[in-house]
Structure formats: structure tokens, C-alpha cells
């Protein structure tokens, strides 16, 4: 089974969904199934600077000061999954360089691992994921040899996401035709995987689970 995960490394629900889906995928593999995951790029803030700036002021500028009131809820959901989100340390930055590195890692069979490392760098460690020096260090940690390639492919996949009508992430696309959106619970992902394993000949982009409603509460971040 082939699954594409459209996400952005600065999206908290993408991080949470990444972890939940990985656990569901392992359950499927434990039953004897095979599943191939490919990370796909999406940019929630394509106009962000590569220089970086503190995240909280950037979020307040975009969503209003009330956004900070929602942070504890998101932090709590993440903590329940074993993840540490440090909004006060995070650096808002353009994610195109990070997506390029994920593309390079994907070619080396390490796309999921590279994405997870970038999520942690951004949300837990307060690193600028647009800084090439930072990316060099993270690539080395993940065992990825950065060839400097991948930019063209990232732009192609960003255009593909737009052509598919994807306007929010995370989105999990099974076999190019069945979609689950949002950071759904692990059991929901597991059920979706099992359902896709049994389905054939369905129409493109069939929702297997109701889309989560909003970046602030239910696991889905939109542009």
C-alpha cells in the first residue's frame, strides 16, 4: 500500500498526525501488511522569511492575539502523544529548504525519519529550519547525504497539491485516491488502512474519515 502524507514541518497537527499514523502503520505491518510512506510538501506560510523570527508574534500577527489562548490545548494533545511543543522557543521560517531536504532524504529511503527530525527541531529545539547550517547538522544526524538537489521536485509536488485541491494539512492520500485529513486518532488511521487494503476501483479523493475542523482544535491546519 502506498501512502503520501502532505504536511508542513511548522504545523503542530502535522507532527501529531505523523506520530499517530506511524503507529497505525506499524500495527498494519505487524499483521503482515506492507505500507510505503512518502512525505509530500505543503507550505502554510510560503511568504515567511528564511531569516526566521520568533513564532508567537508571527502567529499573533496572522491569527490575532487570541491564538495564544489555544496553545495550551495543542501542547496538551501533543504531550499525550509523547511530543514536546515549545512555542516560546520556536522560530517562524520559510519551510521550502526543509521540504527540499525531506525530498533528498526520501530518495535515500529516509523521508519519514528526516521529517520527524525536522518536526522536533522546529517545535522542541527552537531551531531555524530554513538555515542551511542547521539543515546540514540535522541531515547528518538522520544519516542523510544532502546532494543539494530536490528544489524542482518540491515545487512540482506543491503544484500537485494545489491541483488536487489540498488546502489544509495534514492530509493522508492512500493509493492516490483515498484521503484522510487531519490528525485523526491512531485507531481511525488503523481502520482507514484496513479499509484501503480491501477496496478497489473507487473514485479519486474519497474521504475515508471526516476532515478535522480547524488548526486550532481538531487536527487540521489550513492556509
Tell me what you see in this structure.
This protein is an alpha/beta fold and 223 residues long. The chain has one domain (2-222): 3-Layer(aba) Sandwich (Glutaredoxin), CATH 3.40.30. It is built from 8 helices and 9 strands. α1 (12-30) links the parallel β1 (2-7) and β2. α1 packs antiparallel against α5, α1 packs across α8 (186-198) and α4 packs antiparallel against α5.
How many structural domains? Answer: 1
Q: Taking all residues together, what is the mean pLDDT?
A: 91
Give me the strand/helix succession: EHEEHHEHHHHEEEHEE
**Largest sheet composition:** 5 strands, mixed
User: What are the low-pLDDT stretches, counting only 5+ consecutive residues below 50?
Assistant: 200-205
Give me the secondary-structure topology.
Elements: E1 2-7, H1 12-30, E2 36-41, E3 53-54, H2 55-63, H3 71-80, E4 91-92, H4 96-107, H5 111-123, H6 132-142, H7 151-163, E5 168-169, E6 171-174, E7 178-181, H8 186-198, E8 206-207, E9 221-222
Helix pairs in contact: 1-5, 1-8, 4-5
Quick recap of the structure?
This protein is 45% helix and 13% strand. It is built from 8 helices and 9 strands. It has helices spanning 12-30, 55-63, 71-80, 96-107, 111-123, 132-142, 151-163, 186-198, and strands spanning 2-7, 36-41, 53-54, 91-92, 168-169, 171-174, 178-181, 206-207, 221-222.
Which characteristics define this entry?
single chain, 223 residues, Glutaredoxin, five-stranded mixed β-sheet, two-stranded antiparallel sheet
